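Bumping with the actual sequence this time:
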Amino acid sequence: MIDEMHLENGAHIHDPFSGAGTTAIESSLEGYRNSCIEINPFLHFVNRVCLDWSLKVHEARAVLADIERDFRCFKGETSLETITDLGIGIPPIHNVERWWRADVLHEMLCLKAAIGGVEDPRYRDFFRLTLAAVLVPDLTNVTLGRLQLHFIDRSKDDINPWRTFEAHARVMIEDLVLLNNNSLVSQTVLIHGDATRPESYESLEEIDAVVTSPPYPNRYSYVWNTRPHLYMLDFIVEAKSASEIDRRTIGGTWGTATSELMKGEIAPRSDVLAAALAGLHERIRAKDNLMANYVVHYFNRLQLHLEALSTRLSPSAKLAYVVGNSWIKDEYVATDIVLSRLIEGTVGAKVTKVHRFRRRHSGKDLFESIVYASR
């Protein structure tokens, strides 16, 4: 996408829905200035740690050895019932015993305590990321279905937290070898915020290009599916907090978000959006009011994002949005077409290309597309 847009050297590339940081990482490797926004605190953490390229290989290896020593000590001296003596609490996720076997949970909490004892916060976060990376599905009683995590029986599985953790730690340390050998530096501006709000963009320099992939309107929730990470790694400490985060996201679809979508009829927030939808929401509403509200809410917030973003776009800015089309109540939601109309009516940019580049696994005529536009 960067190549397609023919960006000048040193251009500022922005990703308002950064997820795990793919755009920021690639932009940094290509030598561009970049910034990103992420609303999920766990994914924001992933961004931040993945873009810290100052860590040294020999120090990471020494810290890993210290973590192993402390882990084995804590494992031998505590039980699940006494682990709180180390200042490590049981994750406040609902029905914690469904998520983790008792023996696995004890070992993971010992490992978490050992990581927490690392003095340098950069290396502490590096190995917190290691634990996060192997948490699902390797150490948790779940599998990822079509749209969300599903519980499975792992009572007889061979689950070894330390072995799994150490193997992935060594993979990550090899990444540091690559970075150290090439003296690569990332200088990304990271914002933990809401891409639909103007204040999230206030501190950013003028944006030359947007490369991003917002959530798709398919009821997949990144908050729902990162609950084990959010609770295990202490990004949220109250059982209902995940639902509140999901309510604020563009594609929020469970808990409080669903309760709100069940009330009344949500209307398009502008004539531009009403024209872009071309009656799609009303056809869905004739079959299911909740899902009609979901679709309208999704595109309302997508337009709010475009309005907020436009305050920082350069006069010649270029955009590339990766989106996915969906079927909802037997109605085809052509997200790429609706987004194209929204961009032209909201940002003042002309859509130059819609590239349906990949067929999705989940149904007929479903594609992932790149919507390109230029001011």
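The tokens above came from a reply further down the thread. The two ends are 16 Å apart (CA to CA).
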